[in-house]
Design brief:
The protein has 15 helices and 19 strands. It is α/β, with parallel strands linked by helices. The protein folds into 3 domains: about 60 residues, Thrombin, subunit H, CATH 2.40.10.170; about 270 residues, Rossmann fold, CATH 3.40.50.12240; about 70 residues, Substrate Binding Domain Of Dnak, Chain:A, Domain 2 (Up-down Bundle). α6 packs across α7, α7 packs across α8 and α12 packs across α14. It is elongated, with a radius of gyration of 29 Å. InterPro entries: AAA+_ATPase, ATPase_a/bsu_AS, ATPase_alpha/beta_chains, ATPase_F1/V1/A1_a/bsu_N, ATPase_F1/V1/A1_a/bsu_nucl-bd, ATPase_T3SS_FliI/YscN, FliI_clade1, P-loop_NTPase. Its EC number is 7.1.2.2. Keywords: ATP synthesis, ATP-binding, Bacterial flagellum biogenesis, Bacterial flagellum protein export, Cell projection, CF(1), Cilium, Cytoplasm, Flagellum, Hydrogen ion transport, Ion transport, Membrane, Nucleotide-binding, Protein transport, Translocase, Transport. It is found in: Cytoplasm.
Length: about 475
Protein backbone atom coordinates (compact mmCIF):
# COMPACT_ATOMS: atom_id res chain seq x y z
CA UNK A 1 0.00 0.00 0.00
CA UNK A 2 1.42 3.36 -1.01
CA UNK A 3 1.82 6.28 1.38
CA UNK A 4 -1.11 8.29 -0.13
CA UNK A 5 -3.40 5.24 0.27
CA UNK A 6 -2.41 4.85 3.93
CA UNK A 7 -3.10 8.54 4.51
CA UNK A 8 -6.63 8.27 2.96
CA UNK A 9 -7.37 5.13 5.03
CA UNK A 10 -6.34 6.82 8.29
CA UNK A 11 -8.38 9.87 7.37
CA UNK A 12 -11.50 7.76 6.67
CA UNK A 13 -11.07 5.80 9.90
CA UNK A 14 -10.69 8.98 11.92
CA UNK A 15 -13.84 10.52 10.44
CA UNK A 16 -15.82 7.30 10.85
CA UNK A 17 -14.82 7.16 14.51
CA UNK A 18 -15.75 10.81 14.96
CA UNK A 19 -19.19 10.30 13.39
CA UNK A 20 -19.84 7.26 15.61
CA UNK A 21 -18.97 9.35 18.66
CA UNK A 22 -21.32 12.10 17.46
CA UNK A 23 -24.12 9.55 17.02
CA UNK A 24 -23.54 8.29 20.54
CA UNK A 25 -23.70 11.81 21.93
CA UNK A 26 -26.88 12.55 20.01
CA UNK A 27 -28.46 9.55 21.69
CA UNK A 28 -27.99 11.24 25.07
CA UNK A 29 -29.59 14.50 23.95
CA UNK A 30 -33.15 14.97 25.15
CA UNK A 31 -35.59 16.59 22.70
CA UNK A 32 -36.70 20.05 23.60
CA UNK A 33 -39.65 19.98 25.98
CA UNK A 34 -42.47 21.89 24.36
CA UNK A 35 -44.87 23.47 26.81
CA UNK A 36 -47.89 25.71 26.81
CA UNK A 37 -49.33 28.01 29.43
CA UNK A 38 -52.66 28.51 31.15
CA UNK A 39 -54.46 31.68 30.10
CA UNK A 40 -57.89 31.15 31.63
CA UNK A 41 -59.70 28.99 34.16
CA UNK A 42 -63.48 29.27 34.02
CA UNK A 43 -65.60 26.82 35.95
CA UNK A 44 -64.65 23.30 34.90
CA UNK A 45 -62.47 24.18 31.91
CA UNK A 46 -58.95 25.54 31.57
CA UNK A 47 -57.71 27.28 28.43
CA UNK A 48 -54.14 26.79 27.22
CA UNK A 49 -52.06 28.36 24.43
CA UNK A 50 -48.71 27.34 22.98
CA UNK A 51 -49.50 23.67 22.31
CA UNK A 52 -50.97 21.80 19.37
CA UNK A 53 -52.41 18.56 20.67
CA UNK A 54 -55.15 16.25 19.45
CA UNK A 55 -58.45 15.97 21.28
CA UNK A 56 -58.08 13.27 23.93
CA UNK A 57 -54.38 13.92 24.56
CA UNK A 58 -53.17 13.91 28.17
CA UNK A 59 -51.33 16.81 29.80
CA UNK A 60 -49.80 17.55 33.18
CA UNK A 61 -49.72 20.90 34.94
CA UNK A 62 -46.89 21.28 37.50
CA UNK A 63 -47.92 23.19 40.62
CA UNK A 64 -45.68 25.49 42.69
CA UNK A 65 -45.78 23.03 45.61
CA UNK A 66 -44.41 20.19 43.48
CA UNK A 67 -47.73 18.47 42.84
CA UNK A 68 -49.11 17.87 39.36
CA UNK A 69 -52.60 18.19 37.97
CA UNK A 70 -53.49 15.79 35.18
CA UNK A 71 -55.77 17.05 32.43
CA UNK A 72 -57.15 16.00 29.07
CA UNK A 73 -57.75 17.96 25.89
CA UNK A 74 -61.51 18.01 25.34
CA UNK A 75 -61.72 20.64 22.59
CA UNK A 76 -60.10 23.65 20.96
CA UNK A 77 -60.94 27.01 19.44
CA UNK A 78 -58.29 28.33 17.07
CA UNK A 79 -54.98 28.24 18.96
CA UNK A 80 -56.65 27.72 22.34
CA UNK A 81 -56.96 24.27 23.83
CA UNK A 82 -59.72 23.41 26.29
CA UNK A 83 -58.43 21.22 29.11
CA UNK A 84 -60.54 19.29 31.60
CA UNK A 85 -58.70 18.52 34.88
CA UNK A 86 -58.87 15.19 36.69
CA UNK A 87 -58.55 16.78 40.13
CA UNK A 88 -58.93 20.08 41.95
CA UNK A 89 -57.43 23.15 40.23
CA UNK A 90 -56.80 25.27 43.33
CA UNK A 91 -53.33 26.86 43.20
CA UNK A 92 -53.14 27.30 39.43
CA UNK A 93 -52.09 30.83 38.49
CA UNK A 94 -52.11 32.61 35.11
CA UNK A 95 -49.20 31.49 32.97
CA UNK A 96 -48.76 28.09 34.64
CA UNK A 97 -46.95 25.65 32.36
CA UNK A 98 -48.78 22.84 30.59
CA UNK A 99 -46.67 19.82 29.57
CA UNK A 100 -47.85 17.13 27.15
CA UNK A 101 -47.55 13.61 28.50
CA UNK A 102 -46.14 12.27 25.24
CA UNK A 103 -42.97 13.81 23.87
CA UNK A 104 -43.56 15.78 20.71
CA UNK A 105 -40.25 14.58 19.24
CA UNK A 106 -39.03 10.96 19.54
CA UNK A 107 -35.50 10.22 20.68
CA UNK A 108 -33.11 8.98 17.97
CA UNK A 109 -33.40 5.24 17.57
CA UNK A 110 -36.78 5.07 19.34
CA UNK A 111 -39.18 6.04 16.57
CA UNK A 112 -42.48 4.31 17.39
CA UNK A 113 -44.75 2.58 14.95
CA UNK A 114 -47.16 5.07 13.36
CA UNK A 115 -50.18 5.38 15.63
CA UNK A 116 -53.25 5.14 13.51
CA UNK A 117 -55.80 3.64 15.88
CA UNK A 118 -57.68 5.51 18.61
CA UNK A 119 -56.85 2.68 21.03
CA UNK A 120 -53.14 3.39 20.55
CA UNK A 121 -53.60 7.07 21.37
CA UNK A 122 -55.92 6.43 24.32
CA UNK A 123 -54.77 6.32 27.90
CA UNK A 124 -53.66 2.86 29.05
CA UNK A 125 -54.60 1.69 32.56
CA UNK A 126 -54.02 -1.53 34.55
CA UNK A 127 -56.18 -4.56 33.72
CA UNK A 128 -56.00 -8.26 34.50
CA UNK A 129 -56.44 -10.73 37.33
CA UNK A 130 -54.60 -8.48 39.77
CA UNK A 131 -57.71 -6.27 39.93
CA UNK A 132 -59.95 -8.99 41.37
CA UNK A 133 -60.86 -8.16 44.95
CA UNK A 134 -59.59 -4.60 44.55
CA UNK A 135 -61.25 -1.18 44.43
CA UNK A 136 -59.67 1.46 42.18
CA UNK A 137 -60.58 4.94 40.97
CA UNK A 138 -61.13 6.07 37.40
CA UNK A 139 -57.38 6.44 36.85
CA UNK A 140 -56.49 2.94 38.07
CA UNK A 141 -55.21 4.05 41.49
CA UNK A 142 -56.08 1.78 44.45
CA UNK A 143 -58.68 3.11 46.90
CA UNK A 144 -58.80 0.15 49.30
CA UNK A 145 -55.44 0.67 51.05
CA UNK A 146 -54.23 -2.82 50.10
CA UNK A 147 -51.05 -1.66 48.39
CA UNK A 148 -50.16 -1.44 44.70
CA UNK A 149 -51.91 -3.46 42.04
CA UNK A 150 -50.18 -6.76 41.30
CA UNK A 151 -50.69 -6.73 37.57
CA UNK A 152 -48.41 -5.95 34.66
CA UNK A 153 -51.13 -5.89 32.01
CA UNK A 154 -52.54 -2.62 30.74
CA UNK A 155 -55.15 -1.78 28.17
CA UNK A 156 -56.62 1.26 26.42
CA UNK A 157 -59.74 2.75 27.95
CA UNK A 158 -61.11 3.52 24.47
CA UNK A 159 -61.05 1.06 21.57
CA UNK A 160 -62.26 0.86 18.01
CA UNK A 161 -65.87 -0.26 17.50
CA UNK A 162 -66.22 -3.99 16.96
CA UNK A 163 -67.46 -5.37 13.67
CA UNK A 164 -71.05 -6.45 14.42
CA UNK A 165 -70.71 -9.40 12.02
CA UNK A 166 -67.82 -10.80 14.08
CA UNK A 167 -69.86 -11.03 17.30
CA UNK A 168 -71.25 -14.34 18.44
CA UNK A 169 -75.07 -14.41 18.67
CA UNK A 170 -76.86 -14.69 22.02
CA UNK A 171 -77.78 -18.37 22.32
CA UNK A 172 -77.28 -19.25 26.02
CA UNK A 173 -79.34 -18.31 29.04
CA UNK A 174 -77.66 -16.71 32.04
CA UNK A 175 -78.72 -17.71 35.53
CA UNK A 176 -78.82 -14.54 37.67
CA UNK A 177 -80.21 -16.24 40.77
CA UNK A 178 -83.40 -14.13 40.85
CA UNK A 179 -86.65 -15.99 40.23
CA UNK A 180 -88.63 -13.16 38.64
CA UNK A 181 -85.84 -12.49 36.11
CA UNK A 182 -84.98 -16.12 35.34
CA UNK A 183 -88.60 -17.06 34.72
CA UNK A 184 -90.23 -13.91 33.34
CA UNK A 185 -87.37 -11.86 31.86
CA UNK A 186 -84.75 -14.44 30.97
CA UNK A 187 -81.31 -12.96 30.35
CA UNK A 188 -78.99 -14.23 27.62
CA UNK A 189 -75.24 -14.44 27.99
CA UNK A 190 -73.83 -11.37 26.29
CA UNK A 191 -77.03 -9.32 26.59
CA UNK A 192 -77.05 -5.63 27.60
CA UNK A 193 -79.92 -4.54 29.80
CA UNK A 194 -81.02 -1.43 31.61
CA UNK A 195 -82.30 -1.23 35.17
CA UNK A 196 -84.70 1.72 35.19
CA UNK A 197 -85.48 3.02 38.66
CA UNK A 198 -85.99 6.10 40.74
CA UNK A 199 -84.36 6.62 44.11
CA UNK A 200 -85.09 4.32 47.01
CA UNK A 201 -86.76 1.40 45.23
CA UNK A 202 -84.12 -1.29 45.87
CA UNK A 203 -81.90 -0.78 42.82
CA UNK A 204 -78.58 -1.28 44.64
CA UNK A 205 -79.86 -4.33 46.54
CA UNK A 206 -80.96 -5.97 43.28
CA UNK A 207 -77.56 -5.27 41.72
CA UNK A 208 -75.83 -6.80 44.72
CA UNK A 209 -77.96 -9.94 44.46
CA UNK A 210 -77.06 -10.33 40.79
CA UNK A 211 -73.37 -9.75 41.53
CA UNK A 212 -73.38 -12.52 44.14
CA UNK A 213 -75.68 -15.05 42.46
CA UNK A 214 -74.97 -14.73 38.72
CA UNK A 215 -73.02 -17.60 37.21
CA UNK A 216 -70.11 -15.68 35.69
CA UNK A 217 -66.34 -16.08 35.78
CA UNK A 218 -65.64 -12.45 36.66
CA UNK A 219 -67.74 -9.54 37.89
CA UNK A 220 -66.76 -5.95 37.02
CA UNK A 221 -68.58 -3.18 38.88
CA UNK A 222 -68.47 0.51 37.95
CA UNK A 223 -69.87 2.92 40.56
CA UNK A 224 -70.08 6.11 38.53
CA UNK A 225 -71.32 9.38 40.01
CA UNK A 226 -72.91 7.86 43.11
CA UNK A 227 -72.61 9.15 46.66
CA UNK A 228 -69.35 8.29 48.39
CA UNK A 229 -71.22 6.70 51.28
CA UNK A 230 -73.00 4.36 48.88
CA UNK A 231 -69.68 3.17 47.44
CA UNK A 232 -68.50 1.78 50.77
CA UNK A 233 -71.94 0.44 51.61
CA UNK A 234 -72.27 -1.33 48.27
CA UNK A 235 -68.83 -2.96 48.58
CA UNK A 236 -69.06 -4.07 52.22
CA UNK A 237 -72.74 -4.82 52.77
CA UNK A 238 -74.40 -5.41 49.40
CA UNK A 239 -71.57 -6.99 47.40
CA UNK A 240 -70.00 -8.64 50.46
CA UNK A 241 -66.66 -10.47 50.82
CA UNK A 242 -67.84 -13.38 48.67
CA UNK A 243 -68.89 -11.12 45.81
CA UNK A 244 -65.81 -8.88 46.07
CA UNK A 245 -63.43 -11.86 45.84
CA UNK A 246 -64.30 -12.39 42.18
CA UNK A 247 -65.02 -8.75 41.34
CA UNK A 248 -63.07 -5.70 40.20
CA UNK A 249 -64.63 -2.42 41.37
CA UNK A 250 -64.07 0.99 39.78
CA UNK A 251 -65.37 3.88 41.88
CA UNK A 252 -65.75 7.45 40.59
CA UNK A 253 -68.09 9.11 43.13
CA UNK A 254 -70.14 12.23 42.57
CA UNK A 255 -67.50 14.53 44.08
CA UNK A 256 -64.90 13.64 41.43
CA UNK A 257 -64.49 15.85 38.33
CA UNK A 258 -66.69 14.94 35.35
CA UNK A 259 -63.68 13.75 33.35
CA UNK A 260 -62.95 11.13 36.01
CA UNK A 261 -66.55 9.94 35.89
CA UNK A 262 -66.36 9.54 32.11
CA UNK A 263 -63.01 7.82 32.39
CA UNK A 264 -64.30 5.57 35.18
CA UNK A 265 -67.08 4.25 32.95
CA UNK A 266 -64.67 3.68 30.06
CA UNK A 267 -62.16 2.01 32.40
CA UNK A 268 -64.84 -0.32 33.78
CA UNK A 269 -65.68 -1.41 30.25
CA UNK A 270 -61.98 -1.82 29.37
CA UNK A 271 -61.45 -4.19 32.31
CA UNK A 272 -64.45 -6.26 31.22
CA UNK A 273 -63.18 -6.31 27.62
CA UNK A 274 -59.79 -7.61 28.76
CA UNK A 275 -61.38 -10.57 30.55
CA UNK A 276 -63.70 -11.21 27.59
CA UNK A 277 -60.72 -11.35 25.24
CA UNK A 278 -59.27 -14.06 27.49
CA UNK A 279 -62.37 -16.18 26.93
CA UNK A 280 -64.09 -15.47 30.25
CA UNK A 281 -67.78 -14.81 30.78
CA UNK A 282 -68.04 -11.43 32.47
CA UNK A 283 -70.89 -9.80 34.35
CA UNK A 284 -70.54 -6.03 34.18
CA UNK A 285 -72.64 -3.78 36.41
CA UNK A 286 -72.53 -0.02 35.89
CA UNK A 287 -74.31 2.27 38.32
CA UNK A 288 -75.24 4.50 36.68
CA UNK A 289 -75.50 5.30 32.98
CA UNK A 290 -77.37 8.50 33.83
CA UNK A 291 -74.44 9.89 35.86
CA UNK A 292 -72.17 9.12 32.90
CA UNK A 293 -74.46 11.16 30.65
CA UNK A 294 -74.55 14.00 33.17
CA UNK A 295 -70.75 14.09 33.30
CA UNK A 296 -70.59 14.42 29.53
CA UNK A 297 -73.23 17.14 29.70
CA UNK A 298 -71.11 19.11 32.19
CA UNK A 299 -68.06 18.90 29.93
CA UNK A 300 -69.95 19.70 26.73
CA UNK A 301 -71.70 22.74 28.19
CA UNK A 302 -68.45 23.99 29.73
CA UNK A 303 -66.68 24.08 26.36
CA UNK A 304 -69.60 25.83 24.67
CA UNK A 305 -71.65 23.06 23.06
CA UNK A 306 -75.28 24.21 22.80
CA UNK A 307 -77.92 22.34 24.79
CA UNK A 308 -80.59 20.43 22.91
CA UNK A 309 -83.06 18.03 24.56
CA UNK A 310 -83.86 19.18 28.11
CA UNK A 311 -80.41 20.68 28.54
CA UNK A 312 -78.49 17.70 27.15
CA UNK A 313 -76.09 18.53 24.27
CA UNK A 314 -76.06 16.27 21.21
CA UNK A 315 -72.70 14.73 22.17
CA UNK A 316 -74.36 13.03 25.16
CA UNK A 317 -76.62 10.96 22.92
CA UNK A 318 -73.67 10.19 20.64
CA UNK A 319 -71.50 8.86 23.48
CA UNK A 320 -74.10 6.57 25.05
CA UNK A 321 -74.19 3.98 22.22
CA UNK A 322 -70.40 4.13 21.88
CA UNK A 323 -70.06 3.01 25.50
CA UNK A 324 -72.87 0.45 25.46
CA UNK A 325 -71.85 -1.19 22.18
CA UNK A 326 -68.48 -2.17 23.68
CA UNK A 327 -70.25 -4.76 25.85
CA UNK A 328 -71.78 -7.97 24.52
CA UNK A 329 -70.41 -11.18 23.06
CA UNK A 330 -66.96 -11.43 21.57
CA UNK A 331 -65.88 -13.66 18.71
CA UNK A 332 -67.54 -17.03 18.17
CA UNK A 333 -66.17 -19.41 20.78
CA UNK A 334 -64.78 -16.56 22.88
CA UNK A 335 -65.88 -14.77 26.03
CA UNK A 336 -68.82 -12.49 26.70
CA UNK A 337 -69.84 -9.40 28.64
CA UNK A 338 -73.35 -9.44 30.06
CA UNK A 339 -73.97 -5.84 31.13
CA UNK A 340 -76.51 -4.24 33.44
CA UNK A 341 -76.70 -0.44 33.31
CA UNK A 342 -78.80 1.42 35.86
CA UNK A 343 -80.77 4.37 34.53
CA UNK A 344 -82.15 6.90 36.99
CA UNK A 345 -85.64 8.09 36.09
CA UNK A 346 -86.24 11.49 37.66
CA UNK A 347 -89.62 11.50 39.35
CA UNK A 348 -90.17 7.96 38.01
CA UNK A 349 -90.58 9.49 34.55
CA UNK A 350 -89.94 6.74 31.98
CA UNK A 351 -89.82 9.38 29.21
CA UNK A 352 -86.72 11.07 30.60
CA UNK A 353 -84.33 11.80 27.66
CA UNK A 354 -81.57 9.52 28.95
CA UNK A 355 -84.04 6.75 29.82
CA UNK A 356 -85.67 7.02 26.42
CA UNK A 357 -82.32 6.93 24.62
CA UNK A 358 -81.01 4.04 26.72
CA UNK A 359 -84.18 2.03 26.11
CA UNK A 360 -83.56 2.25 22.37
CA UNK A 361 -79.92 1.09 22.43
CA UNK A 362 -80.15 -1.68 25.05
CA UNK A 363 -81.30 -5.28 24.58
CA UNK A 364 -84.03 -4.99 27.18
CA UNK A 365 -84.93 -3.17 30.38
CA UNK A 366 -86.20 -3.93 33.86
CA UNK A 367 -88.42 -1.28 35.44
CA UNK A 368 -88.54 -1.02 39.24
CA UNK A 369 -91.92 0.24 40.40
CA UNK A 370 -92.15 2.55 43.43
CA UNK A 371 -95.67 1.37 44.23
CA UNK A 372 -94.44 -2.21 44.52
CA UNK A 373 -91.52 -1.15 46.72
CA UNK A 374 -93.83 0.80 49.03
CA UNK A 375 -96.02 -2.29 49.34
CA UNK A 376 -93.04 -4.39 50.45
CA UNK A 377 -92.77 -6.26 47.13
CA UNK A 378 -89.05 -6.93 46.62
CA UNK A 379 -87.48 -7.04 44.16
CA UNK A 380 -89.88 -4.36 42.90
CA UNK A 381 -89.69 -5.45 39.24
CA UNK A 382 -92.72 -4.39 37.24
CA UNK A 383 -93.09 -7.32 34.85
CA UNK A 384 -95.71 -5.42 32.81
CA UNK A 385 -93.29 -2.64 31.80
CA UNK A 386 -90.15 -4.79 31.64
CA UNK A 387 -88.91 -6.81 28.68
CA UNK A 388 -85.96 -8.97 27.65
CA UNK A 389 -85.54 -8.79 23.89
CA UNK A 390 -83.44 -11.96 23.72
CA UNK A 391 -85.82 -14.15 25.71
CA UNK A 392 -87.79 -15.47 22.74
CA UNK A 393 -84.63 -16.83 21.06
CA UNK A 394 -83.04 -18.55 24.08
CA UNK A 395 -86.02 -20.14 25.85
CA UNK A 396 -88.33 -23.05 25.02
CA UNK A 397 -91.85 -22.61 23.71
CA UNK A 398 -93.31 -24.07 26.93
CA UNK A 399 -91.35 -21.58 29.01
CA UNK A 400 -92.57 -18.68 26.87
CA UNK A 401 -96.21 -19.80 27.11
CA UNK A 402 -96.02 -20.13 30.91
CA UNK A 403 -94.39 -16.71 31.29
CA UNK A 404 -96.91 -15.10 28.96
CA UNK A 405 -99.79 -16.71 30.88
CA UNK A 406 -98.52 -15.42 34.22
CA UNK A 407 -98.04 -11.95 32.78
CA UNK A 408 -101.61 -11.92 31.42
CA UNK A 409 -103.07 -12.94 34.77
CA UNK A 410 -100.93 -10.42 36.65
CA UNK A 411 -101.89 -7.62 34.26
CA UNK A 412 -105.60 -8.50 34.37
CA UNK A 413 -105.60 -8.40 38.18
CA UNK A 414 -103.71 -5.08 38.32
CA UNK A 415 -106.18 -3.42 35.93
CA UNK A 416 -109.12 -4.57 38.05
CA UNK A 417 -107.51 -4.09 41.45
CA UNK A 418 -109.71 -1.13 42.43
CA UNK A 419 -112.93 -2.97 41.53
CA UNK A 420 -111.85 -6.02 43.48
CA UNK A 421 -110.78 -3.98 46.50
CA UNK A 422 -114.14 -2.18 46.89
CA UNK A 423 -116.10 -5.38 46.18
CA UNK A 424 -117.61 -4.14 42.93
CA UNK A 425 -116.55 -7.20 40.93
CA UNK A 426 -118.94 -10.15 40.79
CA UNK A 427 -117.36 -13.56 40.63
CA UNK A 428 -118.01 -15.37 37.34
CA UNK A 429 -118.20 -12.24 35.19
CA UNK A 430 -114.71 -12.77 33.69
CA UNK A 431 -113.22 -16.31 33.82
CA UNK A 432 -109.68 -15.01 33.23
CA UNK A 433 -110.02 -12.50 36.05
CA UNK A 434 -111.46 -15.21 38.28
CA UNK A 435 -108.32 -17.27 37.72
CA UNK A 436 -106.13 -14.20 38.31
CA UNK A 437 -107.87 -13.57 41.64
CA UNK A 438 -107.47 -17.21 42.66
CA UNK A 439 -103.75 -17.27 41.82
CA UNK A 440 -102.88 -13.73 42.91
CA UNK A 441 -101.36 -14.71 46.26
CA UNK A 442 -99.22 -17.41 44.62
CA UNK A 443 -98.12 -15.03 41.87
CA UNK A 444 -97.14 -12.37 44.41
CA UNK A 445 -95.14 -14.92 46.39
CA UNK A 446 -93.50 -16.16 43.18
CA UNK A 447 -92.35 -12.68 42.15
CA UNK A 448 -90.99 -11.80 45.61
CA UNK A 449 -87.64 -13.01 46.91
CA UNK A 450 -85.51 -12.51 50.01
CA UNK A 451 -82.16 -10.81 49.58
CA UNK A 452 -80.28 -13.91 50.77
CA UNK A 453 -82.17 -16.42 48.58
CA UNK A 454 -80.44 -17.75 45.48
CA UNK A 455 -83.03 -19.26 43.14
CA UNK A 456 -81.41 -20.92 40.15
CA UNK A 457 -82.82 -21.32 36.67
CA UNK A 458 -84.12 -24.93 37.07
CA UNK A 459 -85.91 -24.07 40.32
CA UNK A 460 -87.36 -20.89 38.81
CA UNK A 461 -88.83 -22.78 35.84
CA UNK A 462 -90.16 -25.56 38.06
CA UNK A 463 -91.95 -23.06 40.32
CA UNK A 464 -93.34 -21.20 37.29
CA UNK A 465 -94.80 -24.43 35.86
CA UNK A 466 -96.23 -25.49 39.22
CA UNK A 467 -98.33 -22.31 39.41
CA UNK A 468 -100.65 -23.64 36.71
CA UNK A 469 -100.61 -27.33 37.58
Amino acid sequence: MTAPDRTVDRHTTRWSSYLRDCGTLVGFVEPQQVSGRITRVAGLVMECVGLKLAVGSACTIPMPNGARVEAEVVGFDGDRLFLMPQSDVEGIVPGTKVLPVEATLPRPGTVPHPRRRPSDRARHLPVGMGLLGRVVDGAGRPLDGLGPLLTEDSGPINVRPANPLDRAPIVETLDVGIRAINAMLTVGRGQRLGLFAGSGVGKSVLLGMMARFTKADVVVVGLIGERGREVKEFIEHILGPEGLARAAVVAAPADTPPLMRLQGAAYTTAIAEHFRDQGKNVLMIMDSLTRYAMAQREIALAIGEPPATKGYPPSVFAKLPVLVERAGNGLVGGGSITAFYTVLTEGDDQQDPIADSARAILDGHFVLNRRLAEAGHYPAIDIEQSISRAMHTITTTAHQHAARRLKQLYSRFERSRDLITVGAYAHGTDPVLDQAIALNDKIEAFLCQEITDNVGMPQSLAELTSLFS
